[in-house]
Every structure is written in structure tokens, then in C-alpha cells.
Amino acid sequence: MAPAIKVQPLTAQAFGPFGDVLDCTGTPDKIINQGLCGRFHDLARLDFGPGGRAGISLFQAELRRLPYRLDMVERHPDGSQAFLPMSQDPFLVIVAPDRGGSPGTPIAFLTLPGQGVNYHRRIWHGVLTPLSGSGRFAVIDRIGDTPNLEEFWFETPFMVEP
User: Fold this and answer.
1) Is the CB of residue 9 less than 8 Å from the CB of residue 109?
2) Are 126 and 83 in contact (CB under 8 A)?
3) Tell me: the pLDDT tens digits for 96-134?
4) How many domains does the chain fold into?
5) What pLDDT sits at residue 133?
6) Domain residues for 96?
7) CATH no. for residue 68?
8) Quick one: which of 72, 69, 125 has its CA closest to 95?
């Protein structure tokens, strides 16, 4: 039987060791555009390593459902990776601490509507996992000529449960 992982709400404190939560919670840092726009400033630590640059891509991901079978995680050694949903639909975020070059026990989060995430460089994470909505995301990550992907396949998959 696969070990179970319970989904928890995504908070900046719980997610902090893995990356940044991107949302418009609280009071804006600045009011701009003739007082008609709140700016939530510099929310993510973007890091693109040597030989790379920032790029913006659009992803169209297939919807998944819970329980979700987690058999693989990945990480990007040379760059952070930010996912911004293009709808108000929550999505599943899975991360794992590094244990000597391999992922430890995964942790699963469910975003609130409108939240995005930025995975820091070298953080093990699951693939894009929308549970409802369009599955469309804007992604800001490293563009470069050198490889920037490591995958780890679990010998025994995990089951992510609500």
C-alpha cells in the first residue's frame, strides 16, 4: 500500500523553506496608477544561475484529481520556477526536502484561489497539478542551453489525499 500524504493549506510560513507564495493578501506595498492600482512588490526570489535568462511561458496542463498518485518529483538546479494560475482555481503543490541529493518525504499543499508559487532553485517538487478550472498557467523560469532538470522516481509511490 502506498504511503499517504494529507493535503494542507498553502501558507507562506509552511511553504517558506521551499519557495515563495504569490498572492495579493494584505495591504499593497504601494498605490500606483493614479491611485487605482495596488502593487504587491517583489514577491518572489527569482534566481536563474549562470548562462540563463528569465523567460515567460504559458502552460496548458491536464486536470488531475484527488487522491493523486505521486510517483515522481523534479527539481531545477540552475533556476527558480514560478507558477501563476490564469484562473481563480486552486491547484495542488507538492514539495520535498532534499536528503543528500534525493527527495525526502513529500509535503502537499492546496492553494487558495488566485495564489501562485515560486519554487526556489534546487527544490524537489511535483509536476503541475491543477484540480479544476482551465489548467492554464503563466510560468517564469530559466531559459538556457544547458540542462536544468533532474527527475526522481519513487520506488514506492505516495498517495496524496484530501
Assistant:
1) yes
2) no
3) 999 999 999 999 999 999 999 999 999 999 999 999 999
4) 1
5) 95
6) 4-161
7) 2.60.120.480
8) 125
